[in-house]
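Predict the 3D structure for this chain.
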Amino acid sequence: MAKDKEKGKEKHRPIKQGDRYICPHCQAEVPLKQDCPTCKADIDWSKI
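Done. Predicted structure below.
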């Protein structure tokens, strides 16, 4: 996974389960094209 050099954080792809997307860190459902509302993980939507 590539590092985001501006923020110093890694971007992670969401896990697809059916028609939902799940945060790879906290397993919460993530709204489409948004960061995780629970743990604030930076989600990389460019590869979806």
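The chain has no helices and four strands.
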